[in-house]
């Protein structure tokens, strides 16, 4: 019992010791997911500031793949904001290369998606392990690769992106626990719950789109 108490006390002290920058990144990251679930373009500016902060924090924390992932998120935040803003200017019946609406993809697409992500994760994980560049090379690589790929699905408003986030967020929680980013664990725990919420919200929106056509 004493060991359990010491473990909780140590975790609490470590939580208090986290930087204010990480708390800011967490707050904006949560705002991003909530706004994305509501199909709001303002999700992307929140994502931009959050990921800019995390790029620096993860690089300093010797999680290079997570730092690169967040640098990639910076670009995707700009792309997502532009794409969702353009979509607001057109109706669902207009044909436009920049118009996106919530939609689903076939099971064949998802088999290919998972196969590609798994292959890339294995190759990058092997490289990180051989170069000793990461604390948890294969998990670091897997979270990074699928997050990169899935962010594209989110920007393109593919409904199943939320299901992928459920798995990615669960894996990320373990990764950040092992690497000491305790405030980030809180954020990803909320992300995990919000992924269920996001899927439900988009499912309702896609139903509304289909009935209005």
Automatic annotation (TrEMBL):
Q: What's the protein's topology in the membrane?
A: Multi-pass membrane protein
Q: Kindly list the GO molecular function terms attached to this UniProt entry.
A: nicotinamide riboside transmembrane transporter activity
Q: Which domain of life is it from?
A: Bacteria
Record keywords: Cell membrane, Membrane, Transmembrane, Transmembrane helix, Transport
Q: Which GO terms describe its cellular component?
A: plasma membrane
What is this protein called in UniProt? Nicotinamide riboside transporter PnuC
> Which family does the record claim for this protein?
Belongs to the nicotinamide ribonucleoside (NR) uptake permease (TC 4.B.1) family.
Q: Where in the cell is it found?
A: Cell membrane
> Is Transmembrane helix set as a keyword in this record?
yes
Residue stretches spanning the membrane: 12-35, 42-59, 65-84, 109-129, 183-199
* Annotated function: Required for nicotinamide riboside transport across the inner membrane.
Give the main location. Answer: membrane
Pfam assignment, any one: NMN_transporter
């Amino acid at each position: 019992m004493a060991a359990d108490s010491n473990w909780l006390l140590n975790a609490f002290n470590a939580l208090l010791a986290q930087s204010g920058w990480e708390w800011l990144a967490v707050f904006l990251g949560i705002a991003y997911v909530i706004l994305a679930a509501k199909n709001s373009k303002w999700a992307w500016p929140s994502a931009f500031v959050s990921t800019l902060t995390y790029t620096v924090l993860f690089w300093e924390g010797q999680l290079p793949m997570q730092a690169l992932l967040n640098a990639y998120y910076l670009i995707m935040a700009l792309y997502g904001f532009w794409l969702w803003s353009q979509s607001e200017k057109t109706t669902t019946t207009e044909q436009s290369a920049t118009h996106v609406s919530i939609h689903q993809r076939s099971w064949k697409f998802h088999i290919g998606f998972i196969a590609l992500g798994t292959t890339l994760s294995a190759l990058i994980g092997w490289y990180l392990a051989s170069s000793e560049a990461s604390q948890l090379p294969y998990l670091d690589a897997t979270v990074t690769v699928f997050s990169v790929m899935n962010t594209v699905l989110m920007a393109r408003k593919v409904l199943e992106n939320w299901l992928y986030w459920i798995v990615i967020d669960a894996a990320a929680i373990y990764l950040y626990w092992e690497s000491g980013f305790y405030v980030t664990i809180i954020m990803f725990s909320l992300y995990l719950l919000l992924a269920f919420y996001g899927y439900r919200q988009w499912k309702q929106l896609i139903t509304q789109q289909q009935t209005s056509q």
